[in-house]
Amino acid sequence: MTQSVDHETVVSRLLGADDILILCHKNPDGDTLGSGAALCLALRRLGKTAAVLCSDPIPAMYAFLPITVFDGSFAPRFVVAVDVAGIQLFGDKNNMPRYAEHVDLCIDHHASNSGYAYESLVDGSAAAAAELLTSLIPELGVELTPDIAACLYTGLATDTGCFRFTNTTAATHRAAARLIEAGADVATLNERLFECRSHARMEAERMALESLEYYYGDRCAMICLTWDQIQAAGVAGAELEDLTSLPRSIEGVEVGLTLRQQKDGSYKISVRTGNQTNACSIARRLGGGGHPRAAGCEISGNLDNAKHAILDEVKKELDRAAQAAEPDA
Questions:
Q1: CA–CA distance, 116 with 85 (Å, rounded to integer)
Q2: What pLDDT is recorded for position 329?
Q3: Per the UniProt record, which residue ranges are transmembrane (predicted)?
Q4: CA-based Rg of the chain, rounded to a whole angstrom?
Q5: pLDDT number for residue 282
């Protein structure tokens, strides 16, 4: 069982450590990579040996991040995980299981964090792990340089949908302002992250929209991509992340589902909800987790099984929401 710790303890642990390995989650997004890169830069500025490890390759859209990838040149003596809510999210490539079993410190913003690390700093009110690190890094005595600020802004902006999602708070905007003041070139970063889509990404979106289905009086919308379609489009996993907002963006849809088949045949399911339903409740009942408006899980089996399983949980949540909205008898 993990021990919850505060900022002061995290700072003490990091200042006292060396040969530090920073772990990101599989299918890496902007927050896990941006947070990992920023923390690594900060630790190296303190004269420490540090590097970042991920089970999967770094997507091309994040190639601009100055990430020092772990090459095995040192033996890790302290392991930190950033933006990883559960041990199953680390993946099994690049020798990841060896390090994921002994995580000394977890820095995360998922309230559903499973407590796999020896010590954890988890703040479910933060929009991103990068929001936590925006205050933690200066507490280490490290200046927020333009490079560090760019990494943290990447995490902050991608996990909030460029500050559109409901997880965005006043504190999130204050963190963004701090990063802008530190030299983050937000115009260039926003263009790279939100205004540039590859031909492969657009082909994947076309195929996903062709699969669009509605359920429960059009209160739920679902799109699906098979592994063959993803391969045919030639699109990287990270480029598919913003597809998850498409079903929920349809007028009248309360629950949006995006099903993406993985190489092993399982389905990664992203759940996005409106204010009346809880995405995390839906995903958690299938072994996943996340946030009230954005969550996910993985389901083994064929597409019909995956659809049946997730739709059954969506119906329960929609029924619960409808019952809660009824006036007292």
A1: 9
A2: 41
A3: none
A4: 20
A5: 97
**Averaged pLDDT, groups of 10, the chain, 329 residues long:** 95 98 95 98 98 94 96 97 95 95 97 95 97 98 98 97 92 98 97 89 93 97 95 81 90 97 93 94 92 91 95 97 77
Residue 224 is inside which H or E element, if any? Answer: strand 220-225
DSSP alpha helices (H): ranges in the chain?
7-16, 30-45, 96-100, 129-139, 146-159, 170-181, 186-194, 199-210, 227-233, 279-284, 303-325
CB 18 within 8 A of CB 11: no
For the chain, how many residues are written?
329
Name residue 239's beta-bridge partners. Answer: none
Whole-number Å distance between alpha carbons of 24 and 186: 24
Tell me if residue 21 falls in helix, strand or coil: strand
Residue type, 158: T
Q: How many whole angstroms separate alpha carbon 27 and alpha carbon 52?
A: 14
Residue type, 49: T
Would you say 36 and 82 are in contact if contact means Cβ atoms under 8 Å apart?
Answer: yes
* Rounded CA separation 85/11 (Å): 21
d(CA 325, CA 29): 36
Residue 79, beta-bridge partner list: 21
Can you tell me which residue has the tokens 């029924």? 319
DSSP string, 90-155: S-SSTTHHHHHTT-SEEEE--TT----SSEEEE-TTSS-HHHHHHHHHHHTT----HHHHHHHHHH
The pLDDT of residue 72: 95
Quick one: pLDDT at residue 328? 60
User: Contact 2/120 with Cβ under 8 angstroms?
Assistant: yes
Please tell me the distance from the alpha carbon of residue 2 to that of residue 5, in angstroms, as a whole number.
9
3-state secondary structure 274-288: CCCCCHHHHHHCCCC
